[in-house]
Amino acid sequence: MHQTVHVELGERSYDVEIGPDLLAQSGSLIAPLLHRPKVAVLTDENVAKLHLETLRDGLAAAGIEMTSLALPAGESTKSWPHFERAVEWLLAEKIERRDVVVALGGGVIGDLAGFAAAVLRRGVRFVQIPTSLLAQVDSSVGGKTGINAPQGKNLIGAFHQPSLVLADTSVLGTMTQRDFLSGYGEVVKYGLLGDAEFFEWLEVNGPDVSAGDMAARVRAVTRSVQMKADIVARDETEQGDRALLNLGHTFCHALEAATGYSDRLLHGEGVAIGCALAFELSSRLGLCSQEDPSRVRAHLRAMGMKTDLADIPGDLPGAEALVDLMAQDKKVIDGQLRFILARGIGQAFVTSEVPRDAVLSVLEDALTTA
Ligand code: GLY
Predict the structure, then answer these.
(1) Atom 2 of ligand 1: nearest residue by CA position
(2) Is pLDDT at 331 greater than 70 in this prediction?
(3) Lowest mean pLDDT among 11-25, 30-44, 143-157, 274-288
(4) Which of 50, 247, 276, 313 is a good FRET partner for 237, with 20 to 30 A between their CA atoms?
C-alpha cells in the first residue's frame, strides 16, 4: 500500500512517502539523510500528545535520538514570537548546519518549522511529517514556508524545499471529521483543476476515503501529491502554472477574511465553496457547461461538506465588500485580480480577464440564496 512520489527539482529533488504506519518506520526512512543520529522535532501540543511517542519509538528503532519542542496548537502560532522561540530553541539544542529539523504537525507547524529551517545557520535541511489531510496533500509539498504578519497571512517566508515528506495515512484517523473534510476540499480541488478521471473516482470513492478506508485514503493522497509534484516541478516559485493550485482560493480568501479567519470557516471549507463558485463563474462566462458547477456542488453535498454561502454560519458582508476583500489577496498583480477558471472539470486555467460585474453577479446570487 506504500507509495512514493518523487518531486523533481534538480538538486532540491525529494520523495514523498505515502502509506500507513510510516511514523513507526521514520527512523529507517530518515537515517539516510543524517550525518549524526540526532534530530530536532518541532510540533504542537495536540499533535505531541497523539503522535510524538510513536515518532520517538520509530526513530529510536534506527538508533536516532530525538529532541522536541511543542508549540501551542493553532494559527496564532504562525507568528514572530513563536518563530523566534523555535529558532532560539534550535540554536540552544546546537542543531548544526548538516543536521535535520523535523516538522511533525499540520500546516501551521510545517510552515513555521520549514521557515525556521530555511533561516537557521542560513539554511538546514528539514523533513515534513504532515499529520492533517490538508498538510499531506498540499502544504507539506512544494517548499512554501513562512509565518503570518499583522498585515496578512503568509506574508513572511521563503521557498525552502523539504528533503523528505512522510505522509503517514494512519494518523489521519485521529482527525475530527470536520477537519478531515476540510482537507478533502483540497483533494477535490486537484480533480477539478487537472484530472477529470480523478474527480470521477472521488465521486464514487469519496465516501470510502471519508469513512477511513486505508487503500482509498492512500490513493487519494497519492494522486493529489502527484499532481502537486508535477505542477511544482514545472513552476517552483509560482511564476505561472503553480497558480492553478489556487483554484477556489480567490473566493476562499475573501470568505476567510469576511469570517475573521475563525472557526466559522476552515480553510479547506472555503476552498470547497470557492471551487463551486469558480465553476459557477466559469459557466456564466460561457467557459464550461451549466452541468459542471451542479456536479461540483452535488459531490461536495454528497460528502457532507460546506458547499454554498448559506452553509457558513452567521452574517456575511455584501457582494461589493467581498470583491473588495478579494482585491487584498497577495496574489493580486498590478491591481488585477487573478482567477482560476475552468473550461470543464479537470481543465482549469489562470486568467486576469474577469469582469468585476460577473464576479459580483455570482456573489449576489449566492448571497441571495444564503
Ligand atoms: N498551496 C498552494 C501552493 O503550494 O502553491
Answers:
(1) 245
(2) no
(3) 143-157
(4) 276
